[in-house]
Fold:
Amino acid sequence: MKLYNTLTRKKEEFVPLEQGKVSMYVCGPTVYNYIHIGNARPMIVFDTVRRYLEYKGYDVNYVSNFTDVDDKIIKQAQEMGISAEEVARRFIAECKQDMEALNVKPATTHPLATQEIDGMLNMISDLISKGYAYAADDGTVYYRTRRFDGYGKLSGKKVDELQAGHRDIRVTGELKEDPLDFVLWKPKKEGEPYWESPWSEGRPGWHIECSVMAKKYLGEEIDIHAGGEDLIFPHHENEIAQSEAANGKPFAHYWMHNGFLNINGTKMSKSLGNFFTVREVGEKYDLQVLRFFMLSAHYRSPLNFSAELMEAAKNGLDRILTAAENLKRISGSAKGELTDPEKDLLTQAEGFTKKFEASMEDDFNTADAVSAVFELVKFANTHASSESSKAFADALYERLKTLCDVLGIIIEKEEEVLDADIEKLIAQRQEARKAKDFARADEIRDQLLAMGIQLKDTREGVIWKRV
Structure:
């Protein structure tokens, strides 16, 4: 399996630190509003990477944080008239709801920055003691960028060129030793959340948060660190500087970054009126369509979002779902075991799985992997019919489902529970209660709950709702 390593700027054979296990850190969103479709791309891309690694038998420890203290969160809290903590809590819940709708698996751990302050204080203290950081008179702690010899190795930027005028890192400040130094700890402003520290009442800088959370939940050295390409500099560059200075060893062996998402060929921006949240897209499309759309291009390529391309994704996904439904229908009425010709056809179908795997193992090329799925769909539509055996239809369905599961595409539709069926079960439960068969009554309640139906017994009778 080969993946493109941003650090070395080439494709490399993937060899994990520990055989059979993968440690993976993906930078998560800052939770001050609903996530937008730009946030959704790394979520979907690296969830798919994780799914493929698990498909290949790896035990993946997947950590993705929520940044729950930040200037944007504080500003939103002031505008909403609530605490920053309440803003973060609300939008973490909303984000998780959107992730579920996108079929993004929950991380092994979703750490919150505010719950890891002690670790940040310890790492900052360690960096100060080793001479990589210093406290200014106002209680700000800065990292000495020039002190770290490898600074710029991820982004390709050179410190001397930054000094010569790159404005993306230079911040003037009389209390800094060097304009290139970046913040590890900042003193509070009036009305802001803060924590006690040896230097000031304040809060951590953004970069130190990820260094600490990756170390705590994955270790000092990890396999894969991933995120959007906008994070390469300065965020990921600064993470490397902090982590390697503090821990004395390489931080992440492989760095993966997804390309930008544009809207109709233009960068997404609220000021341009082309800014879309996942929730807004979900009002027009099943979010499985958005996921399928995101996987239609190579993750490192720029991706253009438009109504036309979303319609094309919807049509493509419909082709897959229709083929799956057709195989289910054939299986429902067919009988018998595989015939010899069907065995030969299934041997041919193995080629689509091999093509799918070859695509994924070439730097997770989901575009080509999707093409292999379409070839399998065409094969199934051509060779499965009412004359087929049940075993043949089932085998093709399972092959299609397995590949779609790796992509996070759901082909098994949950059957909608009809109101009449719910009322019928409730009536059976009432009869069981009258007969004092409480075990049966509880069994029916549990059955309804498993179907997403919650009961509430009142004086007026039983009230139910979908949950």
Observations:
- The first helix runs from residue 37 to 55.
- The longest strand covers residues 222-228.
